[in-house]
Structure formats: structure tokens, C-alpha cells
């Protein structure tokens, strides 16, 4: 069983290389091989899922001395669940890719990185420590970059650059957090970090360990939040999804964002377990993300961009649930179950919706609502698929999204009651919590409104160009093949089944994630369709209807040549990427740091000159020799002294006038010149020898 964990991570990576080699010989063989690989991965994941469902025993796999600290994998209920969801989505996307990429180029590259990313994603979800998580998190970021840049168009490369920039900066900040955490705790294993913040808060006499863990948590939240698409690091999602191929968009939205959420869950349920301040921070981030994503989706007139902004909003819903789990402490079962279930629901819903959007794009090659308007008319299968996704994400009763949103809403109500009783942890007032509750319901209404906008444009309204509408209607059953139709129908049908059977399906799914989130067994029974629970859904639906008719139909549409068209009234200067991030990273920081470097460089030069003129001032040479060296000078002076003594005594009649200092200097110069000539001759001879040796070797070889 331990071997299977490592197999799930590395098997797709090895298969990726094999698929690339096979694709050079046969494209059809490569496509079938990729289908088989993802099918095997899904089969193993399903086997482990049922094993965990029956046995409940964690499986551990350790690979020592890899990258210094080794790789550590573990399989528990939550990991088995999300491993199964990830492999299922990869299998469905791979099957759909065969038709979607029929007329694409660079398909070999796409399948290579599709399988590499699968292995990296499995490595993240199965990781048992932050070091293993970081390694596969970064691999996943780099391999998925190729998905966004696949078309190699200008907008695709720009969006890919944004995606990679956010991923790299987030990864580096996360690594700083890992260093800080390890410096305090001495471990990165999740199980050994449970309650570490509270532990150091209670036992440490100094505030430094507590502050270091807080700083580490914030750094890692930055890195994981960037991948999850949390505000204000969501900027890559609305840019990357529209330009990426639809199967890749489904995985980017449905799974890769959940890899970021996985890290946030670890921080909340392990390091900052029961910490109300941390829960408040996550709650505020969740509310901002939820509202911003919903508003961006409402204004968008691009099909895939709308779904991408919707993903931002749904991540916000999940973060709200995670934040509530931190605030509620030991009474957080509803919040935890709601967060986990909404993660699962969002993954499966976006799989169906993005592949439905892919069907539209591969037929029309456009995504603007005015261009694809009326495409879904007379296409009952596509209508069913999109409608199931729209009802699910809208939180309509009897669909899966209703179950998870109801649980999160009930956790907000539960905390509000505790605040009113004065027994709640944290510093949020009843008024603030009431505002958060209504913001939650209003965001659900915005979801209903923008999904209604998409559904009406695709399946009810007619295209402004009658000839285009005739072409759309003529497609009928020819807009996708049977394999793609089956794949999309299966994905869509799961959504109402999960909603129709909330206790039998959703309850069992939530049970599998409770141990991972450090939650006790859930023993309460929930009346899913009681008046109180239906009330929240009814408020969101009514708010969505009002927003649709009062804002979408009256303000976000206008008449052009007697025809009402969709318009994007979102101001382009509100784009955070162009307004803040690019100016800061590409203009402000290079300018400021460049000036700082110039100042520091000049400061160093100034200090060196000052020191040389004061403390390390150059001393004047007492005597500078005109010729020769110190040794010839000393020997010459000695011999000149002997000469003068001899001339005054022995050689008075025949005095000698030889200047030995000059004589020895000439001898030294002659020796130096001879040595230089000899050295040059030896070098030239050695060079000739080498040339001859090379010629000899070449002759012997050839």
C-alpha cells in the first residue's frame, strides 16, 4: 500500500516522458496511452478511496534523503478523497482533450505537461510535511504554466507571465515561511505541528517564537493564497483561464486552486488550530474574495472569463467556511464540513462548466457572449450539462452546491448566536457578523445572476446574425462526438445525484475529511430542506433574480442597431495587475533599488577614498630606484664602498672608476631579457609540440 502512494506520484511523471516519445511516432497511440495512464491513476485512487472508507487506517510512504530532508507521503480520508477527485477530473479532461485538440498544434507538449502536472498535484495532496508540499507545489506551478501559454498568442504569453510571476513570488515567500517555521519548531511534519502556535504561546517566556510562527504562517498564507486565487492575489485567474485550453482551464480552476486551499487548510487546522485571530483573518480574506470574484463575473462578457471570476468567488465561499472553523473552535463541525464539501462541489461543477465552454469554443472559436449567443439552442445534451453546473454552483436546492453553502451559512448563524450571547471567541461584533451573513447571501445572489446571464445568452436568446444562428442550429448532434458527450454527461449527472442524496453521499464525503481537519465525529442530523435552511437559498435566488433583471438586463446591455447586446462596463483602470502589480514590480522597485544601489556604490567609493586619505594614507617612498632591484642596489652599494676603500689605500696609483650599482643593474636586465626569450621559446616549442601531437592523433584516428 505504501508503494502505491509513491506510484501515484511518480507514475504519471514517467508516463509523461513515454507519451512524448510515443507522440513523435504516432499521435493516436499517444492519445490512447494518455487515456490509459489517467485511467490507471483513477483506478488506483478509487481503490485507495474505498480502502480508506472501510479500514480508515492511514498509509505512510517515506523516501529518505531526497532533496536533503526526504519526501514524506501519507494517505488519510481527506487525501484519499481529493486524490480520487483529482484523478477523476484528469481522466475526464484527458478523454475530452482528444476531440478538443484535434485541430491544435503542440499537442505532444500539452500531453507531456498534462501528465507531469498530474504527478505534481498528487504529490501536493499526498504530502505529509511542508517540505514535500513545497517541492511538488513548485513543480506543479512550472508545469501548469505551459497550459496557459499553449496557444503562444500575445495575450496567452502575457497571461502565462502573470501566472508564473504570481506563482514564483508566492513560492519564494512560502519558502521564507517554511524556513521561519523550521527555525522555531525543528520540524515540518504536519502531525508534529498540531497546535504549535498555541503551544509556544503558552510555554515560551519570550514572544519571539510566537511572532516567528505568526510571520511564518502569514508568509505561507501568501504562497498558498496566490495559488488558490484569494484576493488580492487573484489577478492571474481572470487572465489565465480564458486563454488556456478548456480541459486545462477545468483543471486549473477545479484542482490547482484546491492545492492552494490544501495549504490553507493545513495552516488553519494544524498550526493555528482554534486560533480566533487567524480565523478572523481568513474570514475577512474570504469575504473580500467572494464579493470581488462575483462582481467581476457579473460584469464579464466572456464565457470563460466569467467562469474564471466565478472560481475566485467560490474560493471566497470556501475561505469563509475555513475562517468560521477557526472562529468557532471546538464547535466548528458545520463550518469544516461546509468548507470541505464546497471544495469538492466546486471542483466537480467547474469540470462540467469549463468542458461545456470548451464545446462552445471548439465549434465557434469565440467566447464573447454576443458572438456565441444562441449556440446552445436545439442542443438538449449541452443544455442539460450546462444547466446542471449552473444550478449546482448557484446553490439551488436539490443540487450539490446547496448542501455546502447551507452548511457554511449555518456556521455563520451559529457564530452570530454565540456573539449575541457574549460567549464567542474573537472580536467581531454582532453587527459585523450580520453584515457578513448578508454579504454571503448577496454573493450567492450574484452567482445566480451571472449564471442566469450565461444560460440565457447561450440557450434562450438568438444570435443577432440570423445566418449565424442557422449555422448554430444546423450543428444539432454534430457539435461533439460520443466520447465527449458521455464524459460531459457523466460529470454533469454527478451534481444532482449528490444534491438529491445529501446524507448518503455528501455526508459520507464530509466524514472522510473530519480527521484531517482535527474535528470530532459529527453526530448531529441536519434537516436539509427545513424552512430555515431553504430561507437562505430563497434569499439568494430572489436577490439573483433582482440583480439579473435590474442590472444585467437594464444596465449591462444596450441597443446597437436596434439589437440589444451585452457590454462590459467594468473600468479597465480598475485592473489590479495594470494598476498596482506591474507598475510596482516592473517600474517602481527597479527604479528605487537602482537608485539605492548607485547610492551604496558611491558611498563605498567615498569611504575608501576617505580612509586612504586619513587612516590608511599612502606613505612616500624614501628612495625610488632608477634602475635595477633592491638586491642589485644593495650589492652595488657594497661593492662601490669596497672600491672607494681600495682606491684610497691599495689602488691609489691605479684607481678604478666602475659603478657597480649600474653594472649589476645591467646584468640583471640582461638576465631578465634572456629569461623572457627562453620562456617564449619554450612556450613556442610546446605549442608546436601540441600541434604536432594533435596532427598525429588525427592521423592515427582517420
Quick tags:
mainly alpha; 24 helices; 702 residues; single chain; two-stranded antiparallel ribbon
Give a quick rundown of the structure.
This protein has 24 helices and four strands.
Describe this structure in words.
The protein has 24 helices and four strands. The chain has a two-stranded antiparallel sheet. Strand 1 and strand 2 form a beta hairpin. Helix 3 runs parallel beside helix 13, helix 5 runs antiparallel to helix 10 and helix 9 crosses helix 12. The longest helix has 42 residues. The radius of gyration is 36 Å and the shape is elongated.
Set out the fold topology.
Layout: H1 2-25, H2 27-54, E1 59-63, E2 71-75, H3 77-100, H4 107-125, H5 130-148, H6 154-185, H7 196-203, H8 208-228, H9 236-243, H10 246-271, H11 276-299, H12 303-328, H13 333-364, H14 369-372, H15 380-393, H16 400-421, H17 430-459, H18 466-475, H19 482-500, H20 502-513, H21 531-552, E3 557-560, E4 563-566, H22 576-613, H23 630-648, H24 660-701
Antiparallel strand pairs: 1-2, 3-4
Helix pairs in contact: 1-2, 1-4, 2-3, 3-4, 3-10, 3-13, 3-19, 3-20, 4-5, 4-10, 5-6, 5-10, 6-8, 6-9, 7-8, 8-10, 9-10, 9-12, 10-12, 10-13, 11-12, 11-17, 12-13, 12-16, 12-17, 13-15, 13-16, 13-19, 13-20, 15-17, 15-19, 16-17, 16-19, 16-21, 17-21, 19-20, 23-24
Amino acid at each position: 500500500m505504501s508503494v502505491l502512494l509513491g506510484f501515484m506520484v511518480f507514475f504519471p511523471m514517467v508516463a509523461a516522458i513515454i507519451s512524448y516519445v510515443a507522440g513523435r511516432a504516432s499521435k493516436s497511440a499517444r492519445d490512447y496511452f494518455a487515456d490509459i495512464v489517467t485511467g490507471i491513476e483513477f483506478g488506483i485512487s478509487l481503490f485507495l478511496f474505498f480502502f480508506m472508507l472501510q479500514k480508515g487506517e492511514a498509509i505512510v510512504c517515506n523516501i529518505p534523503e531526497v532533496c536533503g530532508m526526504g519526501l514524506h507521503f501519507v494517505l488519510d480520508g481527506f487525501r484519499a478523497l481529493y486524490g480520487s477527485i483529482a484523478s477523476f477530473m484528469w481522466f475526464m479532461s484527458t478523454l475530452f482533450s482528444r476531440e478538443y485538440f484535434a485541430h491544435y498544434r503542440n499537442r505532444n507538449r500539452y500531453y507531456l505537461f498534462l501528465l507531469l502536472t498530474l504527478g505534481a498535484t498528487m504529490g501536493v495532496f499526498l504530502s505529509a510535511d511542508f517540505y514535500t508540499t513545497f517541492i511538488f507545489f513548485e513543480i506543479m506551478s512550472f508545469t501548469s504554466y505551459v497550459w496557459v501559454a499553449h496557444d503562444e498568442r500575445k495575450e496567452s504569453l502575457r497571461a502565462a507571465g502573470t501566472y508564473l510571476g504570481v506563482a514564483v513570488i508566492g513560492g519564494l515567500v512560502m519558502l521564507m515561511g517554511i524556513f521561519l517555521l523550521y527555525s522555531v519548531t525543528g520540524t515540518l511534519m504536519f502531525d508534529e505541528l498540531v497546535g504549535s502556535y498555541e503551544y509556544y504561546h503558552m510555554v515560551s517566556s519570550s514572544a519571539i517564537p510566537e511572532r516567528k510562527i505568526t510571520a511564518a504562517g502569514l508568509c505561507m498564507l501568501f504562497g498558498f493564497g496566490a495559488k488558490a486565487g484569494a484576493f488580492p492575489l487573484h489577478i492571474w485567474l481572470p487572465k489565465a483561464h480564458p486563454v488556456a485550453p478548456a480541459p486545462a482551464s477545468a483543471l486549473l480552476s477545479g484542482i490547482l486552486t484546491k492545492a492552494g486551499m490544501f495549504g490553507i487548510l493545513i495552516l488553519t487546522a494544524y498550526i493555528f488550530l482554534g486560533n480566533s485571530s487567524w480565523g478572523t483573518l481568513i474570514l475577512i480574506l474570504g469575504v473580500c474574495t467572494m464579493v470581488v470574484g462575483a462582481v467581476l463575473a457579473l460584469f464579464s462578457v466572456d464565457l470563460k472569463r466569467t467562469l474564471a471570476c466565478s472560481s475566485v468567488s467560490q474560493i471566497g465561499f470556501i475561505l469563509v467556511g475555513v475562517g468560521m472553523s477557526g472562529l468557532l473552535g471546538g464547535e466548528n463541525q458545520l463550518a469544516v464540513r461546509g468548507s470541505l464539501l464546497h471544495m469538492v462541489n466546486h471542483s466537480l461543477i467547474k469540470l462540467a462548466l469549463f468542458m461545456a465552454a470548451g464545446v462552445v469554443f471548439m465549434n465557434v472559436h469565440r467566447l464573447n457572449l454576443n458572438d456565441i449567443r444562441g449556440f446552445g439552442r436545439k442542443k438538449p445534451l449541452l443544455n442539460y450539462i450546462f444547466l446542471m453546473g449552473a444550478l449546482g454552483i448557484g446553490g439551488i436546492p436539490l443540487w450539490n452546491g446547496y448542501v455546502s453553502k447551507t452548511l457554511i451559512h449555518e456556521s455563520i448563524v451559529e457564530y452570530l448566536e454565540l456573539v449575541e450571547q457574549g460567549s464567542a471567541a474573537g472580536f467581531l461584533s454582532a453587527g459585523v457578523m450580520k453584515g457578513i451573513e448578508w454579504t454571503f447571501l448577496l454573493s450567492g445572489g450574484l452567482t445566480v445572476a451571472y449564471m442566469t446571464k450565461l444560460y440565457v445568452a447561450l440557450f434562450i436568446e438568438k444570435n443577432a446574425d440570423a445566418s449565424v444562428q442557422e449555422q448554430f442550429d444546423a450543428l444539432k448532434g454534430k457539435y461533439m462526438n460520443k466520447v465527449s458527450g458521455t464524459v460531459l454527461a457523466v460529470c454533469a449527472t454527478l451534481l444532482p445525484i449528490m444534491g438529491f442524496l445529501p446524507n448518503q453521499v455528501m455526508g459520507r464525503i464530509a466524514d472522510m475529511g473530519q480527521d484531517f481537519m482535527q474535528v470530532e465525529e459529527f453526530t448531529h442530523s441536519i434537516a436539509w430542506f427545513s424552512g430555515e435552511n431553504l430561507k437562505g437559498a430563497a434569499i439568494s435566488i430572489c436577490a439573483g433574480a433582482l440583480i439579473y433583471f435590474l442590472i444585467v438586463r437594464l444596465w449591462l446591455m444596450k441597443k446597437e442597431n436596434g439589437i440589444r447586446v451585452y457590454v462590459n462596463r467594468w473600468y479597465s483602470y480598475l485592473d489590479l495587475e495594470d494598476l498596482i502589480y506591474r507598475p510596482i514590480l516592473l517600474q517602481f522597485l527597479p527604479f528605487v533599488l537602482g537608485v539605492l544601489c548607485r547610492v551604496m556604490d558611491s558611498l563605498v567609493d567615498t569611504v575608501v577614498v576617505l580612509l586612504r586619505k586619513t587612516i590608511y594614507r599612502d606613505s612616500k617612498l624614501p628612495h625610488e630606484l632608477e634602475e635595477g632591484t633592491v638586491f642589485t642596489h644593495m650589492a652595488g652599494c657594497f661593492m662601490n664602498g669596497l672600491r672607494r676603500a681600495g682606491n684610497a689605500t691599495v689602488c691609489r696609483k691605479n684607481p678604478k672608476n666602475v659603478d657597480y650599482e649600474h653594472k649589476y643593474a645591467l646584468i640583471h636586465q640582461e638576465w631578465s631579457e634572456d629569461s623572457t626569450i627562453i620562456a617564449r621559446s619554450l612556450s613556442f616549442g610546446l605549442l608546436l609540440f601540441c600541434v604536432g601531437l594533435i596532427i598525429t592523433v588525427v592521423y592515427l584516428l582517420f
